Amino acid sequence: MTYPYGAHIAVVEVDTGTGQVRVLRYLVAYEVGRAINPMLVEGQLRGGVAQGIGGALFEEFGYDEAGQPQAITFIEYRLPTAAEIPPVDVLLSQDAPSPGNPLGVMGAGEGGVNAAGAAVANAVRDALGLAGGVGQLPLTPARVCALAQAGARTGVRAGAQNGVHTGGGDQ
Asked: Which of 37, 57, 114, 134 has its CA at a distance of 20 to 30 angstroms from the CA of residue 47?
């Protein structure tokens, strides 16, 4: 069994009026043991981050009261495009080769996606000044507006210029 060894940091901008979340910056720091092809590993990590941002902000498979799926085409099932994915900085570490195999390699494919949801959620929580968690992913505009209103009711954060807040989160 292998486990990911890394950290994710996201910086987001949240428009409390529309509930729109924009990821401004993203960083993945990841220990891979030994990268046979570092460029390929960096690509896997960046692609995983794009998938993780999709799960954090866009992708949701819902059902109606009769149990029928509500997202049956890519029109209803929201996916991120290149416009929603920021440049992803990658810090690739090869300082701890795995003793479990002769090459010293560790899994790297899951490293980009495994903590992206938590990093984006924590960044949104920070931007809104919330004391607790966000409760549920994806952070759709309606959910973000509800979180912003709940935070405003509790007086956690004073109003920002134009209702736009920035925050950073890590996982």
From this structure: 134
